[in-house]
Amino acid sequence: MEQLNWKCLPFGYIKTDYNVRCRYRDGKWGDLEVSSSEYIDVHIAATGLHYGQEAFEGMKAYMGRDGKVRVFRWDENAKRMILSAGGVKMTPVPEELFREAVFKVINLNKKFVPPYGSGANLYIRPLLFGSGAEVGVKPATEYTFLVFVTPVGPYFREGISPVNMMICRDVDRAAPLGTGIFKVGGNYAASLRALVKAKELGYSSTIFLDAREKKYIDECGPANFFGIKDNTYITPKSESILNSITNKSLIEVAGSLGIRAERRRVPVEELSSFTEAGACGTAAVISPIGKIVDPDKNMIYEYCKDGKPGEVTMKLYNKLVGIQNGDVEDEFGWMTVVE
Ligand SMILES: Cc1ncc(COP(=O)(O)O)c(C=O)c1O
């Protein structure tokens, strides 16, 4: 393995030694196989390719100061993948198979877990797709489940420095009764026009509004949104966003720090009353937002004017990342050591 520069890793794909795969055929899951190939043989009529019958997950393993590798809330990812599978009518991956695959692939690639203190982690990407051939629009009868890992740095390269975002009104990521709550590829394809435009204009990401009324904040590209005011963590409730495991955890972390938390609809105008704002997710961790621009309304909302993240954001960040790295007591029982 060529020496990786752990401190400068992008959020991107780097080849590791092994991945694991499993097929669902004739009504049952087969054995988990280990592969060193980065490729899969896919039927030209697979429903995953044609009709978007696919779902994925994103989670991380962290190297602790004590040399132990820990995974954050893998059971929540397993449950969400079952929910997503149901959302596009796929056969779900049983939680036990998910667990076995995730821990096996980490163990096989332990040398790729970035060192403690580097700011990088091992990203774990479970994927499920319809691999059976169909030409009519219907669910496949065969599925492939695979998990690969890749070492990554934070998604927003700025790390814990503030990022700027743009409100997008001309693209909807997901419809109110659509697939927004599922982690399926179609939602990401639908978000690309807006994301690419935001990047071209110099923003780190786009903020999507609710598709029905365009009145409320939905989420920040591939991360959930939160705002802070009066020692309260406020995050959108919406029928079309991915329920972030990081966000759900931050609500509990907030409670443990004496910070109130509210999950409710967040009108766009409320952005002017927040003293801090941020994006949260497995990849984003907590990315403080410096500025939100709403070009259609000619509005700019500014947070952390001195270029530094706010106090409440930092308290939440330090506790969550401390738990993940094994530096802070895991009072919630979220971490599983990879044996
Ligand atoms: C659209 C979207 N929202 C939010 C999140 C954050 O969710 P989590 O904290 O479970 O990673 C992600 C991805 O990870 C995402 O893709």
Number of helices: 6
Report the order of strands and helices.
EEEHEEEHHEEEHEEEEHEEEEHE
What share of residues is helical? 10-25%
| Count of distinct strands | 18
The gyration radius over C-alpha positions equals 20 Å
End-to-end separation in angstroms reads 23 Å
Mean pLDDT: 95
Q: Looking at the structure, what is the overall shape?
A: globular
Low-confidence residue ranges: none
Tell me about the biggest sheet?
A: 9 strands, antiparallel
Q: Which structural class matches the secondary elements?
A: alpha+beta
Strand content: 25-35%
Description:
The protein has 339 residues and is α+β, with helices and mostly antiparallel strands. The chain has helices at 47-50, 74-87, 95-108, 185-200, 245-256, 311-325; strands at 19-25, 28-29, 33-35, 54-56, 59-63, 69-72, 121-130, 143-152, 163-168, 205-209, 217-220, 223-229, 232-236, 260-264, 276-281, 285-294, 299-302, 335-337. Helix 2 packs across helix 3. The radius of gyration is 20 Å and the shape is globular. The two termini are 23 Å apart. The structure holds pyridoxal-5'-phosphate (PLP).
Topology of this protein?
Layout (H helix, E strand, L loop, with lengths): L18 E7 L2 E2 L3 E3 L11 H4 L3 E3 L2 E5 L5 E4 L1 H14 L7 H14 L12 E10 L12 E10 L10 E6 L16 H16 L4 E5 L7 E4 L2 E7 L2 E5 L8 H12 L3 E5 L11 E6 L3 E10 L4 E4 L8 H15 L9 E3 L2
Parallel strand pairs: 9-10, 9-16, 13-14
Antiparallel strand pairs: 1-2, 1-3, 1-8, 4-7, 5-6, 5-7, 6-18, 7-8, 10-11, 11-12, 12-13, 12-15, 15-16, 16-17
Pyridoxal-5'-phosphate (PLP) binds next to strand 12 and helix 5.
